[in-house]
Amino acid sequence: MENSYMSRVCVTGGSGYIGSWLVKMLLEKGYTVHATLRNLGDTSKVDLLKSFPNADSRLVLFQADIYNPSEFEPALKGCEYVFHMATPMLHDAQSSQYKDTPEAAVASVKAIADSCIRSQTVKRLIYTASFMASSPLTEDGVSFKSCMDESCWTPLDHIPALQACDITPGYTKSKILAEKEALKYNECENGKLEVVTLPCGLVAGETVLPYVPTSVEVLLSQLTGNLMTLNVIKLLQEVWGAIFLVHVKDVCRAHIFCMENPSMKGRFLCAAYNPTIREIAVHFQEMFPEYQIGKELLEGPIKGLECDSTKLIKMGFEYTYDMKKILADSVACGGRLGALVKVKE
Ligand SMILES: NC(=O)c1ccc[n+]([C@@H]2O[C@H](COP(=O)([O-])OP(=O)(O)OC[C@H]3O[C@@H](n4cnc5c(N)ncnc54)[C@H](OP(=O)(O)O)[C@@H]3O)[C@@H](O)[C@H]2O)c1
């Protein structure tokens, strides 16, 4: 859909893995995009974004850091929709304002949502949330509910594995608190701002970046044997009961779907498949015998926990990438960027 009226949108974190695809797709659809990144002097990121089709006439770049959230205000000016995708992965120890990433992440949501309201042009804020905030573990953390849906919130205090070792320190807490903060804006009386949160599963597939994005590395850990990322995929299965997978292009399509819908607010899970590590390993082995799979990955649970992500589908969204394509595109990305070593031709 070409949005002719006020077709100006903002993407925070526009140079990240998902952000760069989203900026590219929005430009291709004819939107004018305000994208933020932390350092406009980083020519590798700036040049990449400027190389996208339509970027010369429709892309405006802004510098903004979550640790100084008022910097986002100029980027939101004149926009109708805002995608808040930037998230602090590592704490800025220089910060005297915030003690950790969760504090900084929540402050950025508040600052951005308040700026949206002040702008009088922003109609909807779409926050990229994470399945790390919607674990189907029971409140005491000892067993799984029958399926994951939008009512699930990760019982962080009762998951020792997450307290000992998160994706990055404070990541899960920041995703839980920031998403809850964003959703509060839907409860404001006379609130004119609609907020959609899109918790996403493990996002994988090709990239436009010159390196393999972390979440693709996590999926490919089965083929690279990288212990750090293997530990992350094992953590995901422990916290989710499956590896909830979604293709990066479907994630971007879902974000654009949530924007183009005439009216939409609330929480919508975004994941297409629920394999286990073992099922993924079997697929990898069949599809890519030239790579070696650790034997222990072919053990473990056969069937993943169900995820009821029909809320988004009932709104009319369709996933277009099947599981084999997600795996194949991720392997193509890892192979192209030199992250995979073949054991046989
Ligand atoms: N990939 C997944 O599997 C997945 C799953 C669920 C949810 N998500 C969510 O999707 C969003 C994007 O993730 P991604 O996978 O695309 O990660 P990514 O490639 O690491 O991108 C992270 C983005 O956050 C920005 N950022 C980091 N610290 C910042 C700060 N202090 N101030 C401003 N911006 C900052 C980075 O900006 P610079 O480029 O300027 O450094 C980058 O654009 C995140 O909110 C993440 O939680 C991702």
UniProtKB/TrEMBL annotation:
Query: Domain named NAD-dependent epimerase/dehydratase: which ranges?
Result: 9-263
What's one Pfam family here? Answer: Epimerase
Q: Which CDD domains match?
A: FR_SDR_e
Task: Name the UniProt key words of this record, in alphabetical order.
Answer: NADP, Oxidoreductase
Question: Does the keyword section mention Disulfide bond?
Answer: no
* Residues in coiled coil: none
Its domain of life reads Eukaryota
**Its Gene Ontology molecular function terms?**
oxidoreductase activity, acting on the CH-OH group of donors, NAD or NADP as acceptor
Oxidoreductase as a keyword of this entry, yes or no, is: yes
Q: What is this protein called?
A: NAD-dependent epimerase/dehydratase domain-containing protein
According to its UniProt entry, this protein's organism is: Carya illinoinensis (Pecan)
